[in-house]
Amino acid sequence: MDEADILSDRIAILSEGRLISLGSSVFLKNKFGEAFQIFACKKERSMDYTSIITRITTEAMIPIRLTDQTEEELVFSVPITTDSHKLEKFFTSFDSKRDSYLLGEYGISAPTLQEIFVRLSPQREYIVPRRKAGILGKLKRTFQGIQVDTDQQQLMNTHATVYGAASAGSSREVIPIAYEEGTGLNDSII
Length: 190
Hints:
By secondary structure, the chain is of the alpha+beta class. It folds into two domains: about 120 residues, ACT domain (Alpha-Beta Plaits); about 55 residues, no CATH class. It is built from six helices and eight strands, in the order αββαβαββαβααββ. The strands form three sheets. It has a four-stranded antiparallel β-sheet, with no helix packed on it. Strands 1-2 form a two-stranded antiparallel ribbon. Strands 7-8 form a two-stranded antiparallel sheet. The radius of gyration is 35 Å and the shape is flat. The N and C termini lie far apart (about 75 Å). GO terms for molecular function: ABC-type transporter activity; lipid transporter activity. InterPro entries: ABCA.
């Protein structure tokens, strides 16, 4: 995706054989990108940053919200449609108050084509059949096959014994009965 972003004049986003969107990377990012990400490193890892986060979001003159927080950094998102003059004022203020926020270095990330593609593509759940893998799964499937073969052989031997008994002068006659598959009638009447 990065190569397409850098090298292409126009980018087509296809999903399941259908054209979803076509345009330059700037057009796609402006049209479908949701927000800039601001990554700010914490100076004090063990400290609770809840009050600092509240200060940042209330003092900002732009719509900013916390999207992620780890032990090492805070991640904020700012809508991509935010006025550039307001962004400039925010970053000027943020730079001057960064030490009071106990934040170190920070960086800004624009929406990527990968994020846009994932957002635009219909998300489908593909069900993978569950079965044991590896040598244990192969052994289990092999032995299950042997068991089926053994059961079928036993059934054939029983069937032959019944017919053999009938033809050996038994007074009872074996009459096979027709059955419809799925009804459970798979017996013979003796």
